[in-house]
Amino acid sequence: MDLHFTFYFTALALFLSLVFLFITKWKNSQTPSKLRKLPPGPKQLPIIGHLHLLSLLPHRDFKELAKTYGPLMHLKLGETSAIVISSPEIAREALRTQDPTFAARSGTMSTEILWYDHTDMAFSPYNDYWRQMRKICVLELLSSKQVKSFASIRSDEVLKLIRSIKSSAGKPINLTEKIFSSTSSITARAAFGKICKDKDTGKTNLRSE
Known about the structure:
Strands 1-2 form a two-stranded antiparallel ribbon. The protein has a two-stranded antiparallel sheet with strand order 3-4. The N and C termini lie far apart (62 Å). The longest helix is centred in the N-terminal third of the chain and has 29 residues, at 2-30. The chain has three domains: 40-102, no CATH class; 104-148, no CATH class; 150-208, no CATH class. The protein has 209 residues and is mainly alpha-helical. The chain has helices spanning 2-30, 58-69, 88-97, 99-102, 109-114, 128-140, 144-149, 151-166, 175-192, and strands spanning 72-77, 80-85, 194-196, 206-208. It contains nine helices and four strands. It is found in: Membrane. It is a single-pass membrane protein. This is Cytochrome. Its main location: membrane.
């Protein structure tokens, strides 16, 4: 029984891998040749691409790879293509001179589902809709008047943070955790007028402050 299960599982895994590779090859064949002209990069493995070349310190790996493939190289991170720039001059050209060309973000299925077909400002393509969203955000949410209106909330939460640190009486504290908690409280009070009652336990109950 176990032998048969192992055999069928292995056969199914090989079949799915072949189907996946076939679909990938077919999608690449449908892409015009002009769009497939990419910068140089190391040889990739099926499915994982170049992920095997990256460690827990990817910026150092990019530096070493750039010595071989140049300051502009192409890497495949799983099924996602990435262009890695290691030169300040090329980065300035991409992020400043050619900024509108590279401003759009590539969408994924998860962001399309979670953010209603990329209608939010964070993942919306760079177009007239995104510019209108940015204008509304700047004028209605991030204007000087709106920022000043929440000054009392910020002062109150910062005072609570200071008191919490002073009350530790020389004992070790997790400052990162306290700052994160304070920031969360400021955001919740500004957005909802309340803060999470059990924020440290992961619950989302709100209580008036």
